[in-house]
Amino acid sequence: MIETLLQTLLNGAASGGVYALVALGYTLVFSVLGVINFAQGALFSVGGYLTFLLMGGRIGVNGALPGWGLPGGLPFWLALLLAAAGSGLVGLLVERVAFAPLRRRNAEPLLALITSLGAGVVLVNLLQLLMGAEGYAFPHGSDALGGLPDALVIAGARIRTIQLLLLLISAAAVLALSLWLERSRGGRALRAVAEDATTAQLLGIHSEAMVRLAFFLSGALAGLGGGLIGVSVSLPGPYFGIGYGLKGLAVLVLGGLGSVPGAIAGGLLMGLAEALVPSEASGWRDALAFAILFVVLLLRPRGLLGRRTVEKV
Amino acid sequence: MIDNGLLVQMLIGALLGLSVYLPLAAGQLSLATPAFYAVGGTLAALLSTRWSALGATADGGFPVPSLLLEMALGGLLAGLLALLVGRLVLRLQGIYLAIATIALVEIVRVAILNLPFTGGAVGIFAIPQPFATAAGYLLPALALLAVAGWLCQRLERMPLGRAMAAIRDDELAARCMGIDTTRVKLSAFVLSAVLAGSTGALAAHFLNTWNARQGSFDASITTLAFVILGGSRTWLGPVVGGLLLTALPELLRPVGDVRLVLFGLVILLGPVLAPQGLITPALLERLGGWGLRSATDRKTEEAQP
C-alpha cells in the first residue's frame, strides 16, 4: 500500500517536474515580452527527437532518409544536454521569424500568438517530413542510462531509475535557473528588462540581447522536457509535444503568469493531482489540469501566486 | 479543384471565423468557438442517430426540417452553455480569458471522448444525410452565413454593436459612460456560441461522422487565424479569412507532404506582412462604391463637410 503510494507520488512529481520545465519556458518569454510563445510545444517535440537522434537512433521507414542515423550514439546525459541546447537554438530562430518582425513594427501583441503558432505548425510538420509520423522507442536497460540499473528498490518500492532521473534533472534545471535569475548579473539584467524594458535600456542593459537569451533558455527548457519524456516513455509522433505545451500553459496560469515559484508549485501540484486520478477514470486525466485551472482562475483571476496589478486610468 | 464538398467546408470555416469575431468585436479574446461547435455537432449527431421521431430513414436519409430543428437546438444548447460559462469567465482579462477558454475547449473535448454515449475515440458514425450530394449542403450553409453576416452588419448600427465597439476601444471609458459592460460582453459571447453551435449541427450531418477531434486546441488557433489573417476590424475579414484558409490546405494537396509546412508558413508570415489582415476598413473605403461601407464610416463623412 505504502509502496504503491510512494510510486504514485514519485510518478506525479516526475511529470510535475516536466510540466514545471515547460511552464518556466513560457514564464521566461512572458516576463520579458508579455506574450505567450505558442511554439513551446513544438520545441518540446524537437527536443525529444534530437535526443533520440543524438543517442544513435535511426530514422524509420516513413522518414525522409529511412535508416539514416548519426554515426555512434552519445550517452544519455550528453545527448540530453546537446538536445536542450539545440532546441534553444531553434527557439532563437522562432524569435527571429515570429516575434522580432512584429516587435520592430510595434504590432499588436495578439499577433504574436498567431505567428508563434505558425512557427510551431512549421516545426512539427518539418519533423514529420524528416522522421515520419511513426512512434519511436528509446533503447532501454542499463546501456541507455550509462550503466545505471533499470530500476531501484527504495523502501520496498520498485522504482524505475528513469523516473527518479526525470525528477532530479528537472529539479536541478529549475533550481539552477531560479538561482541564476536571482543571483547572477545576467539574471538580474533579464529581470530588469522584464520589469521595464525602456528603463533597463537607459541603464545600459542590451534588452534585445536579453530577449534572445530568454528565448534560448525557454527553448532549451522545452527541449530538455521533451528529451526526458522521450527517454522515459517514448516518442509517439511529432505532435506529442503539443499536449505537454498545453498542460504547461495550464500550469503557467495556475501559478500566475510571470511567476517563477508559481510555475514550479503549479507544475508539481498538477503532476501530483494527475497521478492521484484512479486508473478507472484515467480517460478524464487530461481534463483535470484544465478543470483545476478553471476553478483557480475563477477564485483567483491572476493565478495562485500571480501579482495583483492595479488598473491605471 | 474546388468541388462542392470543399465549398461547404469553406462556408463552415467562414461561419466559425464570424463566431470568433463576435466576442473580439467587444474586445474579448475568446478561443471557445470549437467547444460550442463540438457541443452543437455532438447534439445533432446524437439526436439524428438515436431519436427516430426526427425521421431518419433506413437508407440513411433525413428530412430537411429536422436538420433545421437540430441547428436551432444546437445553437440553443451552445448558447445556454455560453450563458453559464460566460458569467464566470468574462470577468477575466486579455490572455487569462484566452487561456480559460482554451481550458473550456479541452474539458469539452475530453468529456466527449469519455462520456458513455458519445462513441469514444471513434465517435458517432453513419449520421443520416438530409441531402444526397454535397451540393445540397451549400444552401443551408449559405443561408446561415447570410443571416450571420446580416446580423453583424446590423449590429454596427444597433446599441449593442456600438456598445461592443466602445468596450473594444476602452473598456473603462465605456463603463464610465454607463454601458453595462458585463451584459454586452456576455451578449457577444452568447451570440458567438449560438452561431458555432448551429454550424456544428450542420457540419455533423455534412461530415457524416462526429468525434471529439472536431473541437480541439488546434481548431481554436486555426479559427483565430481566420480572423487575424482576414482582418478583425470588419465582419467581412473573418469570412474571407475562413474561406481562404480552409481552402488552402486542400489547394496545396498537389505539392504533397510539404503542404502543412506551407500552411504553417502562411500563418507565420501573414500577420507580419499584413498586420491589419487582408480586409481592412481602409480597403472597404476604397471599394466604397460597392455599398460595403459601414454606417459609422458614412456618418463620419457626412459630419465632415
How is this structure best described in words?
The complex is a heterodimer of chains A (313) and B (305). Chain A is mainly alpha-helical and 313 residues long. Helix content of chain A is 67%, strand content 3%. Chain A has helices at residues 2-33, 40-54, 76-104, 110-131, 161-183, 185-195, 197-202, 207-232, 240-255, 260-275, 285-299; strands at 151-154, 157-160. In chain A, strands 1-2 form a two-stranded antiparallel sheet. The longest helix of chain A has 32 residues, at 2-33. The mean pLDDT of chain A is 85. Chain B has one domain (4-217). Chain B is built from 13 helices and no strands. In chain B, helix 2 (33-50) packs across helix 8 (181-207), helix 3 packs antiparallel against helix 8 and helix 6 packs across helix 8. The longest helix of chain B is centred in the middle third of the chain and has 27 residues, at 181-207. Classes of the chains: A mainly alpha (313), B mainly alpha (305). The interface between A and B is large, with 45 and 43 residues.
Give the tags.
heterodimer, A: 313 residues, mainly alpha, 2 strands, B: 305 residues, 70% helix, globular
Radius of gyration of chain A: 20 Å
Number of helices of chain A: 11
Order of helices and strands of chain B: HHHHHHHHHHHHH
Give the overall shape of chain A, derived from the CA principal axes.
globular
Mean pLDDT across the residues of chain A is 85
Give the DSSP E fraction of chain B (strand runs of 2 or more residues): under 5%
Distance N to C terminus of chain A: 58 Å
Beta strand count of chain B: 0
Number of domains of chain A: 1
Question: Main beta sheet of chain A: strand number and arrangement?
Answer: 2 strands, antiparallel
Helical content of chain A stands at 55-70%
The spatial strand order of the largest sheet of chain A comes to: 1-2
Largest interface: A-B, 45 and 43 residues
Order of helices and strands of chain A: HHHHEEHHHHHHH
Overall mean confidence score, pLDDT of chain B: 87
Question: How many individual domains of chain B?
Answer: 1
The value of Rg of chain B in angstroms is: 19 Å
> Structural class of the secondary structure composition of chain A?
mainly alpha
Q: How many separate helices of chain B?
A: 13
Number of strands of chain A: 2
Low-confidence stretches of chain B: none
